[in-house]
Amino acid sequence: xxxxxxxxxxxxxxxxxxxxxxxxxxxxxxxxxxxxxxxxxxxxxxxxxxxxxxxxxxxxxxxxxxxxxxxxxxxxxxxxxxxxxxxxxxxxxxxxxxxxxxxxxxxxxxxxxxxxxxxxxxxxxxxxxxxxxxxxxxxxxxxxxxxxxxxxxxxxxxxxxxxxxxxxxxxxxxxxxxxxxxxxxxxxxxxxxxxxxxxxxxxxxxxxxxxxxxxxxxxxxxxxxxxxxxxxxxxxxxxxxxxxxxxxxxxxxxxxxxxxxxxxxxxxxxxxxxxxxxxxxxxxxxxxxxxxxxxxxxxxxxxxxxxxxxxxxxxxxxxxxxxxxxxxxxxxxxxxxxxxxxxxxxxxxxxxxxxxxxxxxxxxxxxxxxxx
Length: 372
Description:
The chain is mainly alpha-helical. Helix content is 59%, strand content 4%.
């Protein structure tokens, strides 16, 4: 945890803190950052965006801050402070994902105070608790936080405004993150070595041999999943047939096809992360549809209206309970209401959007829902 940044973020948000308060806030943040429940962090995103999180999560978050810092407001300025603290917590959690990706471990020995920041120094303080250690799980949580905020701000559905370095952290994480879902380790040499060593022997396999067999089996399962995903998608593209619409692509209105394709590519995937060539696959599928190229741009409303009631149900199937404003396209599809939010929306359902962009966004929202 970078205490210098935390002090600067408080100052930027016009909630300056002294050395003692900084130490207490960091203690509370350490407790918060140790939480690795996905739903908890999705609620913190909602808290930051002014949506409606689970009341228990909000209460737990505020209580952690109040218990560790007697200066943290009980009533006055509570809402603004909570939003600031939520942004700081999200930034720190994303940073933990970045640190794990970079192989960086935090140093628990130093605490940077606002006075030290002003003097360009770092001061050490005895009894500083060790920072929450980044883990591989933090990568997935950071990815979900980034996806939730990116989805919510699609087409400026919700405008992200914060003086905390949250957007910069999201960009940094995205620049470093690379999905390993489809990476496979080759263990053929291990199996060959075991086979050679035990050839002609009746001796039982030792623990190391069994471990290597397990690794090889897991790699084979992963390989099969990857091949299954590729083959299923290629046959789907070749056949040009939609299970959602029970019809061929060429017979489906392109506005409806864009949304149907998003659901079908999602269902054909074996993993929660995006298919590397997802955007290209979407464009290819759209190009095979009726009047391809003539309706490359449409409005969100006309795309939704082009779907039958049954098709709409199939697109949101299994995810209806989790659809919310963090998945704005699916939320509009589910509710049948306008895509916009707030009194002065920046984007309207009547604004034009390219079909491949809309399809890609719906696909990303479905991926997000399948991962939480």
